[in-house]
Amino acid sequence: MPESAKNSSAAVKYVDSEDEPQYSLCCSMRMAIAVVAFFGFFNLYALRVNLSVALVCMVNYTAFETREGASGVGAQTMNLTQQELRCGGLEEQKLMDGEFVWDKTIQGFVLSSFFWGYIVTQLPGGWMAERYGGKRVFFYGMVLTSVATLLTHAAAERSWILLVFLRVLQGLGEGVVFPAMHALWSHWAPPLERSILVGFSYAGAQVGNVVTLPIAGVLCQYGFAGGWPSIFYIFGMLGVVWCAAWYLIAADTPHRSRWITKREHHFIEHKLTGQMKKDIKVCTPPPPPPSITSSADRGKRHVT
């Protein structure tokens, strides 16, 4: 056999050998990161959509309609106390509607302001994740969002403009999360497991939508601190707890993880570098067929 054919077969045996290190995904560090990331995206969307339900309980639509009909030119945007509403002649049972008299324009600003910040940090989020690490960018983005959520009640009591400002900050914090997670998985996920790990972690976003909306409705009706403020306090605290868990468990790369085993570390590094070796092997031209080589040798001997 020609020497080039021997080298090629040896390279194929090295890349595709059954002696490659293996480490099951179950009970692994990369699976632990996927589970924590799942709850991270759960909190991410919980903090995003909770205002959509809370706003229904926050706005006093009855007072708004009464004020609008009395003025004839539109509702005045102001916070009215129950005593002021009683002086205006509203029935006692209608006072449960809400405490803020915000017209539809202001409600639109409050709901859309989140995406003003969200769209700004999409591209910078990827750059920051590559420069400073996906763990840190994810962590600080969620800290900013959770703290802003905890301050939502106080901000709404002061001014709707302050509430809009906090929602912009939440958007800025959440905008970096998806790019950060992509950067982190590029160092943790072996090629054949990447779709499982990425899909599982991102599924938390949709579960967060499904769970948060009905729970926020219940808290709006039966929660503490007047109902709707409990939505922001509970989900904000859940976000803070998650940030602590993420900071302790996650790592930018397997090399920086304090919990990973040496065997799993070697497995991930081998799988990521092995992908590069397979790409190089594909680009190597195949050796000539044995029949052509033998015919050439016979021709040389005949000429000699």
List low-pLDDT spans: 1-18, 70-83, 85-95, 276-284
Q: What Rg do the Cα atoms give?
A: 30 Å
Major sheet size, sense and barrel closure:
2 strands, antiparallel
Strand order in the largest sheet:
1-2
Average pLDDT for all residues: 80
Described by the principal axes of the CA atoms, the overall outline is elongated
Distance between the termini: 22 Å
Helical segment tally? Answer: 14
The class by helix and strand makeup works out as mainly alpha
Order of helices and strands: HHHEHEHHHHHHHHHH
Summarize it.
By secondary structure, the chain is an all-alpha fold. It has 14 helices and two strands; from the N terminus they run αααβαβαααααααααα.
What order do the helices and strands come in, and which of them pair?
Layout: H1 3-15, H2 29-58, H3 61-71, E1 78-79, H4 82-87, E2 100-101, H5 104-118, H6 122-132, H7 134-150, H8 152-158, H9 160-174, H10 177-188, H11 194-222, H12 228-249, H13 262-283, H14 290-303
Antiparallel strand pairs: 1-2
Helix pairs in contact: 2-11, 2-12, 5-9, 6-7, 6-10, 7-9, 7-10, 7-12, 8-9, 11-12
